[in-house]
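During the second half of the funding period, the structural biology subgroup turned its attention to how the target accommodates small molecules. The most pressing case was magnesium ion, which had performed well in the primary screen but for which no bound structure existed. We therefore specified the complex as follows and requested a full 3D prediction, including the ligand pose.
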Amino acid sequence: MSFFLDFFSYGFLLRALLGGALVALCASLLGTSLVLTRYAMIGDGLSHVAFGALALAMALSAAPLAVAIPVVMAAAFLLLRLSDSSRIRGDAAIAMLSSASMAVGVIVISLSSGMNTDLHSFMFGSILSMSRGDLILAVILSLAVTLLFTLSYNNLFAVTFDENFARASGVRAGLWNALLAVLASVTVVLGMRIMGAILISSLIIFPPLSAMRLSGSFKGVTLISAAASLVCFVSGLFLSYALDLPSGPVIVMVNVLCFSLFSLVRFIRSRRPAPDLTPDP
Amino acid sequence: MSRLLTLENVSFAYDRRRVVRDLSFSIDEGDYLAIIGENGSGKTTLLRGLLGLKEPVSGTITRSEALKAYRIGYLPQQIPEQRDFPATVREIVLSGRLNRHGFVSFYTKEDRREADRAMERLALEPLQKRSFRELSGGQRQRVLLARAMVASSGLLLLDEPVAGLDPIVSHDFYRLIRELNEDGVTIVMVSHDIHCVTKNSDHVLHLGYGHYYFGTTEAYMESELVASYLPGEERGHA
Ligand SMILES: Nc1ncnc2c1ncn2[C@@H]1O[C@H](COP(=O)(O)OP(=O)(O)OP(=O)(O)O)[C@@H](O)[C@H]1O
Ligand SMILES: [Mg+2]
């Protein structure tokens, strides 16, 4: 019990818990859509771009988020454009952009002071780095995402399932993709504070993939993904604090565990004899 | 009979390569138009043009006021291959009703009723809770058809709707479409099954490479084109 009391007596821990949980929620919701379209790896690409942008911000001693968020958004639009033109495959475009911005980041770092602690924490994440401003941004982001998902859930389903049909139904699919890209950019940049540039994409990828083991409906996957993401994040954070390990990797491992568990459930289910073997009409 | 759509000298192209050239024809309310033609002659491209998903590079497509008020139902030839997409039959059929909603997209009772009706007509009720990814090709086709049906009020564009359906289901399907047409729904159907589709259609658009034919079904069946489209053995029957 004193463990929890300890935990909550530190303001920065509470901030990390609250802000991180909100970001994890957004990442899992956006992730459901991104993973199911051709943008599954966008989180990974954007986090590398964010790394390059942060390195640049450090070198120029500018405010990190003020540089990173616009740069990452621009990258997200560029990726959408590139894969829309279908001359370059989406995943190839993402790989190009992420290695290029990684390269820029590393060169900028070695030209300037070298790896300082701030930059280190951006790469590997730190529970300490969630500031009050980050928390406020996380609250705004999660409000925007949950509002979008509740009011316009069915449009989102349509765009994700069959973009052409959605367009023919008058859904502005281009606008939707742009909106998702913008929200994903903010999520990635915020999530990097705790998870680090290298691990943030796991918050986008794991929860929806885990949820897909359990459910065959879009609604089911969306809800399970959100719930799994929250549970994994919170328990991972506590665990990392208790074991005195870095929080990002522990949270990823809890997600891996969750994925394995759900896969096992699916396996056991599929082994159970079907109650009724009459063919479908 | 009022005019819904008029095409004048319309051409479509991908990267400057024209696939449909100088096409002119029109569709009236209540028509049943069959679009026939070899693979790659531009049938799918034309349907996408009619839907407004692809802009013509030259020529004009005129949509009547009546058409603008209609909801168009569309059955695509292919949907992007998504091996593991989690979506139930019901979720997909209901999504056809989205063209009646804006940004705030809650389904109404009427939407649900229409979806139930379409699923009943296509014998999908027992499958409605099943996941799309577990269905057979023909079952999937029926789901997408149900989605097109609930989307439509007035105009239904179908791109090879019976591809992959078994003979009984496809027979029932042709009957269903005929019934819809008799209720006043305008039908535009791409099909390679020339015998079945011309049994029901009143007009035919035959697309070839660089040429086309448009006319009534009777006139078409007497023309040389039918013979040129079918392989040797079948010419005698056509
Ligand atoms: N996205 C695309 N980019 C470039 N060329 C395309 C694209 N889609 C179709 N084409 C080309 O346009 C031509 C017409 O294609 P379309 O799909 O309209 O033919 P179709 O008549 O529907 O054929 P099928 O009977 O096989 O369905 C083809 O030569 C095809 O190669
Ligand atoms: Mg086609």
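Two results from this model are relevant to the next phase. Chain B touches chain A at residues 48, 51-53, 72, 74, 76, 79-80, 82, 84-88, 91-92, 94-96, 98-99, 101, 103-107, 123, 126-127, 129-131, 133-134, 139, 147, 151 (CB under 8 Å). The CA atoms of residues 24 and 122 of chain B lie 35 Å apart.
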